[in-house]
Amino acid sequence: MKEIRRTKVADILATPADYIGKEVDVKGWVRTRRGNKHVQFVALNDGSSIKNLQIVFDLSKFSEEELSPITTGASIHVQGEAVASQGAGQAIEVQASELEIYGTAPADYPMQKKGHTLEFLREKAHLRPRTNTFGAVFRIRHALAYAVHKFFNDKGFVYFHTPLITASDCEGAGAMFQVTTLDPADPPRKEDGSVDYSQDFFGKPASLTVSGQLEGELGATALGCIYTFGPTFRAERSNTPRHLSEFWMIEPEMAFYEIADNMDLAEEFIKYCVNYALENCADDIQFLNDMFDKTLIDTLKFVTHNDFVRLTYSEGVKILEESGKKFEFPVYWGVDLASEHERYLVEEHFKKPVILTDYPKEIKAFYMKLNDDGKTVRAMDVLFPKIGEIIGGSQREENLEKLEGRIKELGLTGMDWYVDTRRYGTVPHSGFGLGFERLVLFVTGMQNIRDVIPFPRYPNNCEF
Ligand code: 4AD
Ligand code: MG
User: Fold this and answer.
1) Does 389 contact ligand 1 (Cβ within 6 A)?
2) DSSP code of 295?
3) Is 252 in the pocket of ligand 1 (CB under 6 A)?
4) pTM greater than the 0.90 cutoff
5) I need a surface site. Which of 223, 353, 358, 397 has the fewest CB within 10 A?
6) Which domain covers residue 436, as residue numbers?
């Protein structure tokens, strides 16, 4: 091998004119090898692009034996001259002069060329990033994560790190994973037989967080505008294509924002992220569009080009009641809307993303601001085609007495630190949570949320 600096496949394919006529050094995994007795073509992928670089092996320079380890999945290092390609399908290819084989991939390599179902690939989640589909999904996921940080940074928001281990249940849904160092088979017990958590690691029961919001509010009522972006954990037994037990959430929280400001920010934020992906992941999105969902690009553009519909929960329920449609779950004022209801509003009635506001207080969390009607709270859910709820948020109750009243009503304890935000220098404030995987699901057009996170966690699955 000569002393040449390695070039990434994406760079060569992006500006072929810069490389034609020059010696290049490339490294990657073999997607396919085909050809005849005179010449062999290898499609090389190094993860930098959905596209492969064609490597041409002239059999007057390489023996068949030398090339025999080059099978799908093998990792190789090639040097040679980049030349304008004569074949259709690529502008540039590399005429190999040097070959080094890093690792072979015997015939039992599970990621053979094509035709694997997504279900099969989920069982091989340790190797599926090597497929075209998952390479595309994870590059898009990365771009969206970057877009999230860029959006908030450019607006002057502070990235505020909230804890993963917590002693409070933000959403009150009671579906938390416990964190303990006690021996489950023989925990210390109090006289009445209950577990003595004063001897546990934190001196009291602790869990993995379901949301960083409560701590986020502490940040917002000091720094003005903050956002969190981290993993959250929910032990719900929801085996659906839209739920994970471990998912990432982005939670902006803004002092002096009322519900309308909150809606404006949510809409601008989603549009920004979708647009960022359209502009920066064009090849990957095109691939997924062609492979899985021919309407994907149109749907994404539609969302970035159209205003979201805004209406109240009560108006939404009225539309559902008058729709004449037979739903699996009944609709009436006060019900927690099911995914089929949300999707009817978005996909059939309005044919646009919808922001639903002012939900009955009984079906929403304790911290939401009570409206003057005494029945509804200043909540907002952003509902998306195919996804259903992508964002949940609200204006927060900033009134000390009302918040304390709600906490008492629901029997919550250990919230003094949170209530202090209302005791000292309380301000109107709002925020929301975007489920990151639901955004990735939307932008990639994948059908199952387990296919947009590298190593999904869901009931009865903790592989890899
Ligand atoms: O609506 P949720 O439960 O809201 C909160 O947690 C608030 N504390 C947010 C806030 O106001 N700061 O969750 C927010 C979003 C949902 O809209 C959904 O996109 C996503 O998180 N989400 C899930 N995503 C994947 N798997 C699950 N099990 C999810 N549960 C919620
Ligand atoms: Mg919600």
Assistant:
1) yes
2) T
3) no
4) yes
5) 223
6) 128-175+210-451
